[in-house]
């Protein structure tokens, strides 16, 4: 044991980690499964676990296809439900896709009930009316 | 994956009991530096292509390599600095006579003697005869001055 050895303290309790702290380096080295938003070409040679070029090229499209299918499926099957849990981990583009799916589902339900041909006031007008009464009452 | 070797160096030191000095991982460090050189050269070439060839799709790759370079640098510097702290602590506790076992754990430089210099005392009291063309392994800090004076020649392996 060396009493004169004082290693670099971790910055965990402070505003930022210490550049030279072994503890901070180890703590910041997380291994998370990676989902890339965009392709990163020319890294194949360094990724030993993905030695075949075809495999590397296919990973991103496969991930996208899987997520796309799950979003379409869940958006088409959640009618009049609280969907916050379903959309929580989606990015903006995926949320837009989910909403499109929901609209399709709602339109279909309307059609099934025979309400598709019914003309209604526009959403804009309805929302404006909702705001107007409270204003008038003030 | 990038930076694996660098992380190995960090774990090695982290595992060593308080203040003890493990052997200098010269091979590991060399591999980290080689990886950094490869990453840097790849980035230089891709940056040129991104700029003049309009390949903006290479930018995520370039950034990723750059992050890896920064991390490798951080690990290397932290490794050397922590060893420095341990060596300094050992100096305080042992004084100027370091046990041989510890000396062998430190990096050594291979030098060739360029002229007849005579007896040269090393820390543990033993002396080395510096005769012209003889080759020795000496701690860097001990022979640095003689290298600067042109008495010894540093041999790079």
UniProtKB/TrEMBL annotation, chain A:
Classification via SUPFAM superfamilies: GINS helical bundle-like (SSF158573), PriA/YqbF domain (SSF160059)
Main location, first listed in the record: nucleus
Pfam families: Sld5 (PF05916)
InterPro entries listed in its UniProt record: GINS_A, GINS_bundle-like_dom_sf, GINS_Psf3, GINS_Psf3_sf
Subcellular localization: Nucleus
Family as reported in the entry's similarity comment: Belongs to the GINS3/PSF3 family.
Subunit note: Component of the GINS complex.
Protein name, entry field: DNA replication complex GINS protein PSF3
């Amino acid at each position: 044991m060396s009493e004169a050895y004082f290693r670099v303290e971790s910055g965990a309790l402070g505003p930022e980690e210490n550049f030279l702290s072994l503890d901070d380096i180890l703590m910041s080295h997380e291994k998370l499964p990676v989902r890339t938003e965009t392709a990163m070409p020319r890294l194949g040679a360094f990724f030993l676990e993905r030695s075949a070029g075809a495999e590397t090229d296919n990973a991103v499209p496969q991930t996208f296809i899987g997520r796309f299918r799950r979003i379409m499926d869940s958006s088409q099957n959640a009618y009049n439900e609280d969907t916050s849990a379903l959309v929580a981990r989606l990015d903006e583009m995926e949320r837009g896709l989910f909403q499109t799916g929901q609209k399709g589902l709602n339109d279909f339900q309307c059609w099934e009930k025979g309400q598709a041909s019914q003309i209604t006031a526009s959403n804009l007008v309805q929302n404006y009316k909702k705001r107007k009464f409270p204003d008038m009452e003030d | 994956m990038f930076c694996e070797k660098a992380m190995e160096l960090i774990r090695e030191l982290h595992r060593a009991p308080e203040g003890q000095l493990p052997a200098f991982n010269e091979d590991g460090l060399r591999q980290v530096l080689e990886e950094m050189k490869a990453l840097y050269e790849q980035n230089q070439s891709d940056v040129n292509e991104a700029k003049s060839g309009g390949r903006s799709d290479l930018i995520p790759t370039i950034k990723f390599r750059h992050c890896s370079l920064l991390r490798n640098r951080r690990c290397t510097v932290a490794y050397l600095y922590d060893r420095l702290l341990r060596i300094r602590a050992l100096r305080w506790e042992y004084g100027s006579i370091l046990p041989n076992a510890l000396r062998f754990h430190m990096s050594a430089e291979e030098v060739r003697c360029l002229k007849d210099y005579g007896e040269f005392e090393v820390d543990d009291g033993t002396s080395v005869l510096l005769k012209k063309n003889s080759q020795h392994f000496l701690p860097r800090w001990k022979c640095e001055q003689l290298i600067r004076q042109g008495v010894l020649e540093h041999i790079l392996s």
